[in-house]
């Protein structure tokens, strides 16, 4: 029984370490791509003003990487550190999801800005997407 506890602890430690490594890799990718620069993110989200399309390449790279990664990973019979793959089963788009998209997009833009820029943006987003705020 002692060996099963050690194996369980080992698996839990591996899951935790894998989560930290994935978070570190994600954060490093954000920093290298410039997505941690609030001015660049606001410039990308400002499609009616001085739009900065450079983050479109970052998003395109993320979509391509995810597309390839899912194809490779789902060929495995089970995840490396888990029992079964947990994938969503619902495939259709409903009004609730489509109605939430503008609110999520504005909230993401709001949270992506620096602390000093949030107060003026609160007034802007309040009038553009009033159900969110």
TrEMBL record:
It comes from the Bacteria. This is YeeE/YedE family protein. InterPro entries: DUF6691. Pfam families: DUF6691 (PF20398). Keywords: Membrane, Transmembrane, Transmembrane helix. The chain crosses the membrane at residues 12-35, 55-74.
């Amino acid at each position: 029984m002692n060996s099963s506890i050690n194996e369980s602890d080992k698996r839990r430690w591996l899951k935790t370490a894998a989560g930290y490594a994935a978070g570190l890799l994600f954060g490093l990718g954000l920093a290298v791509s410039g997505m941690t620069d609030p001015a660049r993110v606001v410039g990308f989200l400002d499609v009616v003003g001085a739009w900065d399309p450079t983050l479109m390449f970052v998003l395109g790279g993320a979509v391509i990487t995810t597309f390839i990664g899912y194809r490779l990973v789902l060929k495995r019979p089970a995840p490396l550190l888990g029992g079964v793959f947990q994938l969503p089963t619902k495939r259709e788009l409903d009004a609730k999801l489509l109605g939430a998209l503008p609110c999520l997009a504005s909230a993401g833009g709001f949270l992506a800005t620096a602390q000093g820029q949030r107060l003026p943006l609160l007034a802007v987003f309040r009038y553009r997407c009033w159900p969110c705020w």
